[in-house]
Amino acid sequence: MPDALEATPYDALLLLSFGGPEGPDDVVPFLENVTRGRGIPTERLKEVGQHYFLFGGVSPINEQNRALLDALRKDFADHGLDLPVYWGNRNWAPYLTDTLREMVTAGHRRILVLATSAYASYSGCRQYRENLADALAVLETEGLPLPRVDKLRHYFNHPGFVEPMTEGVLRSLADLPEDVRDGAHIAFTTHSIPTTAADTSGPVEGHGDGGAYVRQHLDVAALIADAVRERTGVDHPWQLVYQSRSGAPHIPWLEPDICDHLEERRAAGVPAVVMAPIGFVSDHMEVLYDLDTEATARAGELGLPVRRSATVGADPRFAAAVRELILERAAAESGRPVTPCALGTLGASHDLCPVGCCPARAPRPAAAGADSPYA
Ligand SMILES: CC1=C(CCC(=O)O)c2cc3nc(cc4[nH]c(cc5[nH]c(cc1n2)c(C)c5CCC(=O)O)c(CCC(=O)O)c4C)C(CCC(=O)O)=C3C
Ligand SMILES: [Fe+2]
């Protein structure tokens, strides 16, 4: 038996995710939850509904999260970390508010949150913090004791996140026909967001300079490309590109789109492309539809061989990274010395989102940050 590990002061971990439909009847109510008050054109919503119906109305995201929960529980048990793990979502059952109520009722008062988004941005960070504030407000009206809620730092540059993706890119390269393999380019992809949201992502001091969202992705892309060069001896040219744009056409979002990029690479005579979805933690609908279905079909029309590399999903190295992040944060909260683990040029991200980090268009209460109205 290994020595017991201490997560004190924390008494539980909450996996906080997006949620997704689990059958055809769930699709429309799910999309209504996602888009409430966000001004997404009806046409786009109908189109996105079709993506889900193509897969029987089932998003893979909940199954992916169940697998991650299993991996976390196994890793914690194997390492003597006695920390219960719960799961709640923003847009579908199990809903965050219900999970938080269950946690408080079970006696938990210091909760650490792992969001299934590795980078800074309104959608990937502050919006989850707003969801936490909303859930705490509900518990407050119910007269329940309020737990203290902290959120784990962005883990984009943690080796346990980067290494499985590096391995995925190597596997995809190996899977390409030999005559096009060495000439293949790598297209690192992430969710497009409005350029204004990108510019204001991360702490205020980096705003206006492109923002943390793009910088963090570029750092991960460079890390993976360097590791691939070291392991194959081949320098694969790469670019960060975007997918899953959803706003009105007159509002600028991050570009180029993956499909336009494939077309441009084909025209430039590039023999093959590996699409590496570094912006996502698991193979959910954005990956299955936008890359595996739409972009792969476009590549087929172009006669361009493509492969899509794996996300981290429930990789044991990612589960171990989460354990390390928890222990790091627990030590920091207890005033014990810690050296946060991070690769690349940016260093470890902040533990507590400072005031003004990833602002919303219309300010709303957000928990687990310096501007939280809760303790
Ligand atoms: C940065 C980012 C991530 C990565 C970080 C993270 O993982 O959090 C992410 C993840 C996800 N996005 C997802 C689904 C959707 N996102 C939408 C809409 C939007 N996403 C945005 C951004 C992001 N989204 C934005 C700026 C919008 C516009 C409206 C708004 O400002 O809110 C819409 C509405 C329809 C449409 O696509 O237009 C849907 C259905 C799913 C679930 C997939 C599944 O079911 O398997 C996941 C994991
Ligand atoms: Fe999204």
TrEMBL record:
The record's keywords, sorted A to Z, are: Cytoplasm, Heme biosynthesis, Iron, Lyase, Metal-binding, Porphyrin biosynthesis
- List the InterPro entries: Ferrochelatase, Ferrochelatase_C, Ferrochelatase_N
Binding-site residues, Fe-coproporphyrin III: 59, 128
Q: Which residues cross the membrane?
A: none
Protein name per UniProt: Coproporphyrin III ferrochelatase
Domain of life assignment: Bacteria
SUPFAM superfamilies named in the record = Chelatase
Record's subcellular location: Cytoplasm
GO terms for biological process, alphabetical? heme biosynthetic process
Traced from the root, the source organism's taxonomic lineage reads:
Bacteria, Bacillati, Actinomycetota, Actinomycetes, Kitasatosporales
By sequence similarity, the record places it as follows:
Belongs to the ferrochelatase family.
Q: Which HAMAP family match?
A: Ferrochelatase
Molecular functions (GO terms): ferrochelatase activity; metal ion binding
Query: Per the record, what is one GO cellular component?
Result: cytoplasm
Which reaction is the catalytic activity of this chain? Fe-coproporphyrin III + 2 H(+) = coproporphyrin III + Fe(2+)
Q: Quote the pathway field.
A: Porphyrin-containing compound metabolism; protoheme biosynthesis
